[in-house]
Each structure stands twice: as C-alpha cells, then as structure tokens.
Amino acid sequence: RYDDSYFAKTVPLKEKPGRLYVGYLAPLLSRQHCLEPLAGALLSAPVKLFKDKEEYLDNWWTQVVYHGSLRGVANSRTLYQSSVISYLNKMTIENLNGEIEDYYPSYFEYNEKPESLDGYKDIKDIDVKTIVNKYIPVRNLNIKTLTSRQSAEENAHTFDTLVKEKDESDSIDVVLATNMISVGLDVSRLALMIINGQPLTTAEYIQASSRVGRSEIPGIVFINYYKTQARSLSHYENFKSYHNAFYRFVEPSSLTPFTYQARARALHAALVIAIRYSNIGLINNESAGEFDSKSDYLKKVIKNMKTRCSLALGNKKETINKVSKHIDDLVVAWQQEVSYCQANKIKLVYNSNDRSFSNLICNFDEEKGLWKTLQSMRNVEDEALVKLLKGVK
Predict the structure, then answer these.
(1) CA Rg value for the chain
(2) CB neighbours (10 Å) of residue 385?
(3) Which residues contact 114 (CB under 8 A, 6 or more apart)?
(4) Beta strands at 357-359 and 371-373: parallel, antiparallel or unpaired
(5) Taking Cα atoms as reference points, which of 166, 234, 248 lies closest to residue 202?
(6) SS3 state at 134
(7) How open is the CA angle 352-356-361, to the nearest 5 degrees?
(8) Which residues contact 372 (CB under 8 A, 6 or more apart)?
C-alpha cells in the first residue's frame, strides 16, 4: 500500500505528532561558523516560546547535535564553549525585552542578596545587557559527547544522564554525537536535534533523526547544510521532494547471509521457525520436547528448508554443502536435547523464565538455553575495551 511499505508506515498527525524537518543554509558564513547562530537561537528559543508550558520547555531543552565525523564533534565543542554562548546571550537579550527576571526567576532574589547586583534592590534599575554579560550566564551549558573515543562506561553514563530533566542535577544541555546514537538511544523527552551536515547515507539520516520526537511531544530536526559541499547543496535545493519520500532513497544493504558467522547466529532460529510454524503441531511453547527427527513430515520440512537455501545460493556448491551439514547438525543437537530432557524428566520448552524447564533458545547474553538467539540485529558482538600499548610487540 502507498501508506504502508512494511518498512515505513504513514501515521496521521492526530495519532502521533512525529517530527518536523527544517533545512538551514547560511550562505554568508564559513563551514566552521555556520552552526553558531543556529545553535544559539535554538538554545534561547525554548525559554521564550515555552515559558508557560513546562512540559514543552523540558523536551526542547536538550540539544542533540549529530556529526558525521569525530573531527566535527571536536570543532563543535570549541564553538559551544565560545561563539555559541555569545549568540545565546545576544538572542536572549533581544527576546526578553527588559523582562529577564520573568524568564530566569531563580537567578534573582530581590531583597535577600542585593550585594550580588552591586547594591541594586530592584533589578529593573539595571540594563538587561549588563545583567546578562556581567552578572549571570544565561545558561551554564553542560556539554557531553557520545563518540567511539570514549569508553563504554562513559557513553553508558551519558545515555543514562540524558533521561534527567532540565532541573535535575547533571542534566545535559548539549550532547555532541556521532553515529553512536543511530541505534540504542530511546529517550522520550528528547525533541530537538541538529544534524551538522548531510549524512553520507539516507539510512543513516533516517536512523539518526528518529532519535527525537519519539513521545507525544512533537520533535524538530534542523539540518545544517554546508555551502561548500555539493551533497549538502543538492539536498537543500531538493529538500521538500526528498523528505516527502525519503524512504525511497534508502540504499540497499550488502548481505552475506550464509557465512559461518551469520549461520551461527541465525540458522537455528530459522530452523525453529520452520518447524514450529509447519503443520507438525509443534507451535506451542511446551511442544519443543516433542521434536522427533525420524518423523517423515519433519524430514520433509527440513528438506524444503535446504532447498530454499540452495535456491538462494545458486551455483555455490561448496557453501550449499556447508549449509546442509549445518542444518543436519542442528537437527541432531535438538534431538539430543530432547533425549537428555526425557531421560532426566525435565520439560523442554522453546523459552521460559521458569528455572525448572530447559530452554531450547535463550537471549544472546544468557546461558540458560541450548542456542543463543538474537532478538535484534543492532548488537551482534559483545563490547570490549582495548588499550594500545606503545612499544609492545
């Protein structure tokens, strides 16, 4: 259907707000400085726009800034610590129109600490620009990064801290990230993102931008295009047509489904699916223990599975033989598990949290089953920290 392509489904805005994409191009600014006014404006805007709507203010408080390279993250951190702050102060002064105490009441206690404002008891006696520049920072930005240069523990801590609302201690104002956030980041309060330069692939672009606007609060994504980059200019000029159907532009993935690594992670799951949803009658969770490799109908299902793999592989006879043997080994392992459980009077199920049962499959990070099975293709390897030692061979 035109509104449901299996990979993407069109949902009316009445059901879910979703997110809005905004293209931004600063033709008079260099690539190194075009982010500054945009970031400054987006740091200042929530205070002005959502003064009376605290729930929106928190959702738009934290900026997620996506980069295509580690160097881009380093450059942005320098900007946020200098130029972006200047733009933030300037825009805040222009927005507040002399009423700064209405927007930042926590900074002002009129009669309790007059010395903090050099003796002025009434804040209106002081020029707003003087207050912002001399007495208070508009926002003390807590800036964090999510990159591969940090340890797994550091990144995990940043992920956890993103959940904190703006008034909580250690809450994050800006997170500068690479494609590490493309998967695994699901924080409902995040609604604001800047994509610094058009990502290399459409799949990466969709994955990264979908990290915001995941709750009932609408999200907004600003794409900061570079005037000196041909790809950025092309996407800016064709912005509307591209975003109206950008799932059409997702690049095909290169797959090697019958390598040993892929078979070790997924072939047993395909076998379980084929057996469980055939007409043998082994669909219930408790039916795993009724598996019988000598059954004629089961042999037919396995033969059909081998034929399907052979058709997918074409004329790769060596790989076909390896896949066929792998399937036979899985059948033998399943039958041995059935025999062991019957001999020891243990009930074999596909999967259960009941410790008295034996599981045929289990989560990839668990040990309580015959076959470790993935539930997501996002993480297929255990993480490990590696430290390079100079001068050691």
Answers:
(1) 28
(2) 7
(3) 120, 121
(4) unpaired
(5) 248
(6) helix
(7) 35
(8) 361, 362, 363, 364, 366
Q: Own/partner pairs for 376-381, CB < 8 Å, 24+ apart?
A: 378/183, 378/184, 379/184, 380/265
Which string of b and e fits 309-325 if b means at least 16 CB within 10 Å? bbeebeeeeebbebbbe
Q: Tell me which amino acid residue 227 is.
A: K
- Express each pLDDT in 224-257 by its tens digit: 999 988 889 999 999 999 998 887 888 776 667 7
* CB 263 within 8 Å of CB 326: yes
- pLDDT digits 0-9 by tens, 102-157: 544 444 443 343 344 444 444 444 454 555 554 444 567 889 998 888 888 888 88
DSSP tag of 214: -
The dihedral built from the CA positions of residue 172, 178, 184 and 186, taken in this order, carries a sign that is positive
Q: Is 174 left (phi over 0), alpha (psi -120 to 50) or beta?
A: beta
Question: What is the pTM (predicted TM-score) of this model?
Answer: 0.62
Distance separating alpha carbons of residues 185 and 162, to the nearest angstrom: 9
For residue 177, what is the enclosing H or E element? strand 174-177
